[in-house]
Design goal:
This protein has 71 residues and is α+β, with helices and mostly antiparallel strands. It has one domain (4-66). The protein contains two helices and three strands. The protein has helices at residues 13-23, 55-66; strands spanning 4-10, 29-37, 40-47. It is elongated, with a radius of gyration of 17 Å.
Amino acid sequence: MVMEFNIIVAPNLESLATEVAGFLPQGWKLKGGILEHNKGYAQQLVRNPSDRMRPSQKIALKQQKRTKWIE
């Protein structure tokens, strides 16, 4: 299984939280803690390729697969 990794870097904790919050609805999950470095803070994110779709899209896709059209 292939995992996707992403690292968010920001100059302060507030902007880091804002940036990370934008990725969470896309299926990303936090990995580890917040790292402090000389240019600010960083947070690593991870997700499976199957997590790219939002839950509502997955439900719609499942419902679409179950539908049979009668001609």
